[in-house]
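Thiamine kinase-like enzyme structure dump, as promised
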Amino acid sequence: MDKGLNYMELERETGWQLHPIGGETGQAYMGTKNEERLFLKRNSSPFLAALSLEGISPRLVWTKRIGNGDVLTAQEWCNGRTLNKDEMASAIVSQIINKVHQSLSLRRMLHRLGGKVLTPSDFYFDCIYGLAPELIDHPLIRQAIALLEKTMPVDIEVTEKVVCHGDISHKNLLLSSDDQLYLVDWDSAFLADPIADLSQLLERYIDFNEWKVWVEDMLKRTPYLTKDKVYWYSIVNLVQDIKANHKKLDYLRMNQNLIKLNLVLSEFKEIKGEQVV
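structure tokens r here:
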């Protein structure tokens, strides 16, 4: 374990037996004591308390500062499962995302905590930062970057930005045994246009043949939203996912996303009337 606090010391400090839970950070555990179980995580977002109160994440039980200065949070352990990919198109997924976006208390809390406020230019530069040379040289990626720069949306006012999760993934949606859906893993939360989340759901989980229906529904439900903005953010998220696929050497998924990117670019150019080569 990092920061000089080993596994046995952490168990001794908390009084809980810890069972590591798989993940990229290695900071999450199932804690057991007698017959009780909790979900324990080191250095989770201080935003967690507000999410717990809103019923968006499992109930927060306690927080504790441990010997090396880290903060350990304990949440109610939920018997359940993460969603399957084919369940991501269900109404309950859109409902919990919209619940987050519509919450004024969450927005105020994240502002107070100094949460990042992201503009379209932030998404654009984050999208192109760190692209591998072979991706930069790929004709579709070059076309996407040129189109993103040329058609960047005008930024909305800070007061119109909402809390965004930032990683809408089936792995981050937990369905409890009593059918309560939770959105978890909030370490990447920020304040931005709500389409940042909605376009991620769209590009990752919705068949392209169904996009027009989904986009029309988004336009009805989301203030300040336009069709070209949906496609602009979808392209940003697709390039980000392709970058992540390449880094993980997941070339099968990368090529699948490149095929989807080609379809989205063609549709977007038709919407904008742009011919970018």
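The mean pLDDT is 88.
lmk if u need the other ones
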